[in-house]
Design goal:
This protein is an alpha/beta fold and 346 residues long. Among the domains are: 112 residues, Alpha-Beta Complex (Conserved hypothetical protein from pyrococcus furiosus pfu- 392566-001, ParB domain); 92 residues. Helices cover 56% and strands 11% of the residues. The chain contains 16 helices and 8 strands. Strand 6 and strand 7 form a beta hairpin. Helix 2 packs across helix 3 and helix 9 runs parallel beside helix 12. It is extended, with a radius of gyration of 30 Å. The chain starts with a strand and ends with a helix.
Length: 346
């Protein structure tokens, strides 16, 4: 642990700083006036003051103050030439302190250029689950752009993550803007977002509905098949055809398999009778297909769901188009009336 020693305030005081202890390692721990701190232009997370967690944090700081110091770096104000402090880590605590009516906050003062500051923020946020994944990934990419010599492997090492984790995260920056927001808002699971990022933005839009509703074991193979189709078409010098329904292998839920076994396999018995299977080997193959959702009935059920999804999407699109057309017609009519009334105002 770093040893801190206290020096007389008069010997080291700066505007907006109260009773500064000095960190013998070169990093200073001081109480800084909130008014002297500027928010970073590359902050990784926005403050949502409406959440219960934020309200509880504000109440706690109002009662007992900030127990974990924020991190800042010194910078000269371009207009005044005075020393100000740019926030590196602790935006939530900083904002909650202001909302709690506090005047000062404990801070660790670091010396860092912009690139290093960005790196510090990324590392500080690497394992915070509340960080919005696509926004965070965009900052990872920005960090690499600011450090041209840094490899993805080096970044992974600094964040104590695998290179695959870094690659997947950077892949999220390839998502269409609206789809990326859906991932950040939790409307699309992160695993499905990773799969979508392997498609071009226009292709991604064809899978929005499935991405929101399908479990990853079903959705990821579906997108992987489409990626293969596109690559194969490009290899042959032609455009890929429209998205077609593809039966995707995925395991039945363990509870359903156990229920089938405990109840004398009624579903499998019906499938065997329907297919007029005679040999044990054929029955075994059919059982495996059922477990993988690849028997005829499972495929038909999935196809029906996909047809309904496409019909619903088509109906929704037609309604949106009709609403836009109606809105434009209404605006045009109002504009026409306004133009006809204009001469009467003179």
């Amino acid at each position: 642990m770093t040893e801190l020693t206290t020096t007389p305030a008069a010997a080291t005081a700066k505007p907006g700083i109260i009773a500064p202890p000095v960190d013998t390692s070169g990093r200073r721990m001081e109480m800084i006036a909130l008014s002297s701190i500027h928010e970073s232009p590359v902050a990784l997370r926005a403050v949502n003051r409406t959440t219960q967690e934020y309200k509880e944090l504000t109440d706690s700081i109002r009662r007992v103050g900030v127990l974990s110091a924020i991190s800042v770096r010194e910078e000269k104000d371009k207009d005044t030439g005075k020393i100000v402090y740019v926030l590196l880590d602790g935006l939530q605590r900083f904002s909650a302190s202001k909302d709690a009516g506090r005047d000062t906050i404990p801070a660790q003062i670091l010396t860092a250029d912009q690139a290093t500051a960005m790196e510090m923020q990324v590392i500080a946020n690497a394992q915070r689950i509340e960080t919005r994944p696509v926004e965070y990934s965009q900052q990872l990419k920005r960090l690499l752009n600011m450090n041209p010599t840094m490899t993805e492997a080096e970044l992974a090492s600094r964040l104590a993550k695998s290179t695959q984790w870094i690659a997947e995260r950077l892949g999220l920056t390839k998502l269409d803007g609206a789809i990326g927001k859906m991932v950040d808002d939790g409307l699309i699971p992160l695993s499905n977002g990773y799969a979508l990022s392997k498609l071009d933005p226009e292709e991604q839009k064809n899978f929005i509905s499935q991405a929101q509703t399908m479990p990853a074991p079903q959705f990821v193979p579906l997108v992987s098949n489409r990626v293969k189709e596109i690559k194969e078409a490009r290899r042959k010098g032609r455009a890929a055809g429209p998205v077609q329904f593809v039966a995707v292998a995925r395991l039945q839920k363990l509870a359903e398999i156990k229920a089938e076994l405990d109840n004398n396999a009624p579903t499998l018995a019906a499938l065997i009778n329907k297919a007029k299977i005679k040999t044990p080997l054929e029955a075994a193959k059919l059982a495996i297909k059922w477990v993988l959702h690849l028997d005829d009935d499972s495929i038909a059920a999935d196809k029906a769901k996909d047809d309904k999804r496409q019909a619903d999407e088509k109906a929704a699109k037609e309604k949106r188009d009709a609403d836009r057309k109606e809105k434009k017609a209404k605006e045009a009519a109002e504009k026409k009336v306004a133009s006809e009334l204009e001469p009467l105002k003179v």
